[in-house]
């Protein structure tokens, strides 16, 4: 396996896990407030990382929750957001302009801002009421599994949280293992997909943000490969008509509640193209993690799988994942 | 101009306008309830038609509002929705399965359901507490301009509503006129775009749903043309990297509040591709409608413009807009 460092993956996950008590204290701090909304905002791939937690809250609790892109928030506002709201944000650099301005918007409203930030001493950390610094820690989602999980637990809505969080100690090793299981399939996929003129990516529920962001932020942004992403239910309201035997379709199947929507796409697409690839989180063992927690973990399992496409494709295409024509080069 | 019937367009708009007092009575009925949420749900193109009204409410009022695809609603629910909520839905056929099931979900919650339905005596009409039948009436949006406008007026948030609604009497003629102004540009666009291997569509705010649905529900579904749609702010989080001098980009510019996000894309894309087409609602006169109402009307103005692509492209490609390979053919 190329570009693969077992101990680094485990160490990076532990970097976040070891902040568990700090993260839980933030959750406790949030729960002491009589909050009226749990609100998620960021941009691009960071927003996609947050959306499954908005999904989890809505699906499994009555806690009011909403999400909006920071760029939209800055122009139109969100009329559900008040001084009693909690705002969750994330940024790797901690200086993404839109995200910082959104933090200022939330601050002006008097909301309580909680951030996950890659870089310590960044402007986003300074603008936040509480911040978790993850540095090289991965997956960043682990911060939110602990944070949102503990909020739900405190409200009596996720009684197994202490055990779930204990399981999270093994997340790094489990996801390292997923990468090993997925590598050969992903390498084969990378060999073929980079030659395709058009790649349709489909997913639903907690994996729709993954389908959206992997196709855009990795294949488009870092490999200049043309994609279209569409959610599993919406696929049937237009995109289905594009299918022919040589049209490349990549479907992400979640173990979350919307899985039947993905299976419907699988059933249809398998009949109408020879180039359907399914990445199904169910195919991967998660050693050290109880089965009952799997339905929550599809986003991080799928991210581990897809990372093996990224690691292989840059070698196959000879196009480093770090090369950009325009992104963050000059003003635009 | 091919496939163009002036009097029919005016007649179709009047078919909806003449139901103004009925629509306003529904708004009054809604306002008598102590509602906690104005909620929009449907699927595909119908959902895209509704989203600008969710956008309008959020932008211009403190009235709580939210939106969710019916397929997602059915599986995950919406925890903001209660027996005190108002649910807005729309379906041309009135028998879209997901939409009907979503109506049942809302009914079970005890919410008040308001529908815009193409076909009289349809299941969706039967499932609704109040329904407006539009038959051949167009644009369907006119129902919601009157409905949402009157709700805002009743709450003291849109005092110019009576005059705005009077202006809506001229909407059909204005949009007929827009079509005439747009036709030649759209015909030229249709001549070139149908040959493109990949079409990036971009828009924001109240026109993001138009960019999303026109590319998917018309170009993909009825012309089998490959597209990618992305919102103007998200364009800069990945898709921008695809631009080269021969990459086809189609940008919709709104007169709504997010226009600066579109102008940023225009400025960038003009530098990096020779195949940028901008459709800008600002380019079209709206006789009989005051300038102050234009910022609300971008979705219907743009729909009138884009319809001229549709009407021309089916003649150019010899591919009728009504031909489907799969959609609503057999089970899937």
From TrEMBL, chains A, B:
Pfam families: SIS (PF01380). Residues 26-162 form the SIS domain. PROSITE patterns: SIS. This is SIS domain-containing protein. One of its GO terms (biological process) is fructose 6-phosphate metabolic process. InterPro entries: Fructosamine_deglycase_FrlB, SIS_dom, SIS_dom_sf. GO terms for molecular function: carbohydrate derivative binding; glutamine-fructose-6-phosphate transaminase (isomerizing) activity. SUPFAM superfamilies: SIS domain. It comes from the Bacteria.
């Amino acid at each position: 396996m190329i570009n693969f460092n077992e101990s680094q993956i485990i160490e990076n996950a532990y970097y976040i896990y070891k902040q568990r008590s700090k993260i839980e204290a933030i959750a406790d701090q949030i729960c002491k407030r009589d909050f009226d909304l749990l609100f998620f905002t960021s941009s691009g791939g960071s927003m996609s990382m947050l959306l499954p937690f908005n999904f989890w809250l809505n699906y499994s609790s009555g806690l009011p929750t909403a999400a909006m892109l920071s760029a939209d928030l800055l122009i139109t506002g969100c009329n559900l957001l008040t001084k009693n709201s909690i705002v969750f944000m994330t940024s790797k650099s901690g200086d993404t302009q839109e995200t910082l301005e959104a933090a200022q918007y939330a601050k002006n409203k008097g909301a309580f801002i909680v951030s996950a930030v890659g870089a310590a001493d960044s402007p986003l950390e300074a603008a936040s009421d509480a911040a978790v610094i993850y540095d090289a820690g991965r997956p960043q989602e682990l911060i939110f599994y602990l944070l949102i999980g503990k909020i739900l637990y405190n409200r009596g809505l996720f009684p197994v949280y202490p055990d779930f969080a204990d399981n999270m100690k093994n997340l790094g090793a489990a996801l390292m293992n997923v990468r090993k299981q997925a590598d050969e399939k992903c390498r084969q996929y990378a060999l073929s997909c980079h030659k395709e003129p058009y790649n349709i990516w489909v997913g639903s529920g907690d994996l729709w943000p993954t389908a959206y962001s992997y196709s855009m932020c990795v294949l488009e942004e870092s490999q200049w490969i043309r994609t279209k992403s569409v959610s599993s239910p919406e696929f049937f309201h237009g995109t289905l008509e594009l299918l022919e035997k040589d049209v490349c379709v990549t479907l992400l199947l979640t173990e979350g509640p919307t899985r039947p929507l993905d299976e419907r796409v699988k059933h249809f697409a398998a009949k109408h193209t020879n180039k359907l690839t399914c990445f199904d989180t169910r195919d991967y063992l998660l050693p050290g993690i109880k089965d009952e927690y799997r339905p929550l973990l599809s986003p991080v399992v799928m991210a581990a799988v897809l990372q093996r496409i990224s690691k292989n494709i840059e070698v196959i295409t000879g196009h480093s994942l770090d090369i950009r024509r325009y992104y963050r080069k000059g003003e635009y």
